[in-house]
Write a structure and sequence with these properties.
By secondary structure, this protein is an alpha/beta fold. The chain has a domain at 58-187: Rossmann fold (3-Layer(aba) Sandwich), CATH 3.40.50.10610. The protein contains 5 helices and 6 strands; from the N terminus they run ααββαβααβββ. The chain has helices at residues 2-16, 58-70, 96-110, 118-128, 139-148; strands at residues 80-83, 87-90, 114-115, 153-161, 166-174, 180-188. Strands 1, 2, 3, 4, 5 and 6 form a 6-stranded mixed β-sheet that branches. Strand 4 (153-161) and strand 5 form a beta hairpin. Helix 2 packs across helix 3 (96-110). The protein is elongated and about 115 Å long. The N and C termini lie far apart (106 Å). 22% of the residues are buried. It comes from Xenorhabdus innexi. It is a lipid-anchor. Interacts with PBP1b. One of its GO terms (biological process) is regulation of cell shape. Keywords: Cell outer membrane, Cell shape, Lipoprotein, Membrane, Palmitate, Peptidoglycan synthesis, Signal.
Length: 189
């Protein structure tokens, strides 16, 4: 008990002690601001312009092909046609949806086929788990999609080549058998 009393008494004694000495404030010496070294930066280089996207007039390219397709042997007027998404097999970027839309518009203007509406194709692709950006488009997928939509024919199109020389190849296939009724190609300028 004495120890506890001594410890408490020492703590109170130490707590009551105050410093009577005050320290003078630290001396402040003004310092001149140092000017940063002037570095000469290299002159700005011009950023090269990205290549301009070449505008392709798909209507003019696919019109002669669709005209030939409509007159192909074995084609029955008034049947339901699926225009499958154009496949890009080139080494460059290509707006395949514009090409697909152009083929659809030209086929509609011939009044030979009934074209499956875009919204039905969109919902069928979703139901079958096919993405609209599917880069692995194949004839079997196109025929499977056409069968799902109860189409009689399917147009399968592929663009191949390189930037200097590209070509579109279109095929009209009978959905029941997968038989190619017509096939032709055209250069893309």
């Amino acid at each position: 008990m004495k120890r506890v009393f001594l410890v408490v008494l020492s703590a109170m004694l130490l707590a009551s002690c105050t410093l009577t000495q005050t320290q003078p404030p630290a001396p402040v010496t003004p310092v001149e601001p140092v000017k940063p070294e002037q570095k000469t930066e290299p002159p700005l280089q011009k950023v090269p312009q990205p290549p301009k996207l070449q505008s392709i007039n798909w209507d003019n390219i696919v019109q002669p092909l669709v005209a030939q397709m409509a007159k192909a042997h074995g084609v029955e007027a008034g049947k339901l046609l699926l225009v499958d998404t154009v496949k890009n097999n080139t080494n460059s970027s290509l707006r395949t949806l514009k090409a697909t839309d152009a083929i659809t518009d030209v086929v509609n203007n011939t009044h030979v086929f009934q074209v499956v509406p875009k919204n039905q194709v969109y919902y069928a692709r979703q139901a079958l788990g096919l993405s609209s950006e599917d880069s692995l488009v194949s004839r079997s997928k196109a025929i499977g999609l056409a069968r799902y939509l109860h189409a009689d024919y399917v147009v399968y199109s592929v663009v191949s080549g390189d930037n200097q020389q590209r070509k579109i190849n279109m095929q009209l296939m009978l959905v029941k058998t997968g038989e190619i009724l017509w096939s032709d190609s055209s250069d893309i300028n």
